[in-house]
Structure formats: structure tokens, C-alpha cells
Write a structure and sequence with these properties.
0% strand; 2 domains; mainly alpha; 241 residues; globular
């Protein structure tokens, strides 16, 4: 797999071409044709699961489970690595040239931000990183965490849009996801009900605390390490984990 990219200017042109030729898909080489077919199959199978299982949070289920399959699949491709995963232009290419039809099925055919214009909102990038930041050592363990009823599409945004000044402490994010998923749903509902506004849910508060605290504390140097650092975030928010 050769990593291909589209910069912002090229993406804008590619978006216009996609819309003008819709629903025809762009021409790509055989390597990426194979990748296109695999991702289309992921999307189709997960959407069928939604119908068969009568999933209520359909959009979130699709995001998580297409994300899990995409995550596992891309890591198996030679040439794919963290450098590619961190390159927004790679995700733009994948979104606009390889599977714009899959993105369209989730967000509509003309939603610029989820194809290319806002990096944190590029859908394929977003779901891949949601899995990476939530990783619990394996697909099944990660799926079990992310399928917890406490998580929603808002969780994806809150997890990914709160990078601290000192960067992203990946293990911290993974511990946050782990501990949050273990809090009983009734306790979460009571907590959220007692906050000032609906947007001040526990998950958002913990993420905000981490953004502020990691400016002055290196989580790895915290007494007890990153795990205890994360427990302290929940304690500061008034919840014992």
C-alpha cells in the first residue's frame, strides 16, 4: 500500500468532482480498488447488523464498529503506520477518492467537513482515532468498552477535540475510557442531572480537567503513574472509580 494524499486545495477540487459525477466513484489504482471494496464491505455488514439487532443508537454503533474494522484492516496493510494515521491528507484521499460513497451514506454527499475541510471532523480519520485512543489491547476488549451505554457520538468529539498543549497522552485517554465505561449508568444519569447544564456531563468535565491539569503535570510522573492520574481526574470531578 502506497500512502496517497490530497492537500486542502486538491481536496476542494476532488470534492467538486465527486459532486459533479455523483454517484460514480473516482478512478483509482488496483491497490486502492481492493481497499475500497473492503471498506464498502465493512460498512455494508455493520449496517446490516444494525437492522438485524434493531440497534437504537445506530449512528454511534456504525461509527464504532466500522471504526474497529477499519482500524484492524489498515494496520494489516504494508506501508500504513502512525505517520500515515497522523497525516490528514491521507484521510482526505481515502474519503474523497477511495470511499466517498461510504462517507456519503453516513454524512451526506456534500458535507465538506466530514470529507476534508475540518481535520478533526473527517469521518474516517475520526473513527480510526476514536478506536486508537480507546484501545484496550484487542478488538473484543475495545468493542466491549465502546459499546457501553454511556458513550454516544458526542463522546467521539469530546475525546478527540481536547488535545492538551503538551500533546495527547494516549494511555491517559485509554484509562479515561476504561474507567468511565465502568461507572453504573444510573450513577452517571444522577450526576449529569445535577450539573448546571446538559453540556456539563461527567465525560466532558473529566476531559476538560485533563486538558487543564496536563499543562502543569506530566501524567507519567504522577504518583502511581497514568492510571492513578486518571483516577484523580474522576475524584476531582466528584466520582470515585
Amino acid at each position: 500500500m502506497i500512502i496517497k494524499t490530497l492537500n486542502r486545495a486538491e481536496s476542494q477540487i476532488a470534492m467538486k468532482e465527486w459532486l459533479s459525477n455523483y454517484p460514480s466513484l473516482p478512478s483509482i489504482d488496483n491497490d486502492y480498488l481492493r481497499i475500497r471494496e473492503e471498506i464498502q464491505n465493512f460498512n455494508k455488514s455493520i449496517r446490516q447488523e444494525c437492522e438485524e439487532k434493531n440497534i437504537t443508537k445506530k449512528d454511534y454503533y456504525i461509527d464504532v464498529h466500522v471504526g474497529l474494522l477499519l482500524y484492524e484492516y489498515l494496520w494489516k496493510q504494508s506501508g500504513f503506520n502512525m505517520r500515515a494515521a497522523s497525516n490528514d491528507d491521507f484521510w482526505r484521499y481515502l474519503s474523497l477518492k477511495v470511499v466517498p460513497d461510504v462517507v456519503a451514506e453516513r454524512w451526506g454527499k456534500d458535507n465538506d467537513s466530514h470529507y476534508w475541510s475540518k481535520p478533526v471532523r473527517i469521518w474516517l480519520r475520526s473513527i480510526w482515532w476514536y478506536i486508537h485512543l480507546s484501545w484496550q489491547g484487542g478488538i473484543d476488549a475495545t468493542a466491549k468498552i465502546l459499546d457501553s451505554p454511556c458513550f454516544t457520538t458526542d463522546s467521539i468529539l469530546n475525546l478527540e477535540e481536547r488535545t492538551g498543549r503538551n500533546g495527547t497522552f494516549i494511555n491517559v485517554y485509554r484509562y479515561i475510557m476504561y474507567y468511565y465505561s465502568r461507572i453504573p449508568q444510573k450513577e452517571l444519569e444522577n450526576y449529569d442531572r445535577n450539573t448546571k447544564t446538559q453540556s456539563d456531563g461527567l465525560f466532558r468535565i473529566v476531559m476538560k480537567l485533563n486538558t487543564a491539569k496536563s499543562v502543569v503535570i506530566d501524567p507519567a510522573l504522577y504518583l502511581g503513574g497514568e492510571k492513578e492520574y486518571v483516577r484523580s481526574l474522576f475524584n476531582d470531578a466528584g466520582v470515585r472509580v
